[in-house]
Amino acid sequence: MAPALSSTPLQLPNCDDDGGCSPGGAGFTFTEQGFAVPPDYPALPAAGGNFVLLAWRNAEMTNGCHAEPAIQRVRIGGDDAAFIACPSDSGELSGELAGDVALGWVHQGVHVVVGFQGVNPTNIALDLAVARHLIWIAASPSS
Fold first, then answer.
1. Which of 8, 19, 23, 115 is most buried, by CB atoms within 10 Å?
2. Which residues contact 39 (CB under 8 A, 6 or more apart)?
3. Where are the beta strands (DSSP E) in 57-90?
């Protein structure tokens, strides 16, 4: 969960607010941009926070910065995960991950990436907290 914009009451991000939510055949993209951050947040406070969550089953897709070396490896549940510093131009998904520190892993065949703008210890901790608090739900059957 990301904080709300500083000028609005706190609201949970969702896919119904004309924000950056895109469910589709290729996968799921959720972005939350411009949320309020504390003055000591190690990013550009004027721009606010920037969060991305990507999920897809297609093994042909990449997280856009897969060629970059891992800067740290961790476990999310029982899955191996890696932090990657995505360059400002990070390939096919550069709009979502450019300049992010991204945490990526595969859970039961689903590729997942979470990222916050800026490579720093605070955003690494935020990525890890988000990843460890995701709640997995089964997809509803198609009709």
1. 115
2. 45
3. 70-76, 79-85
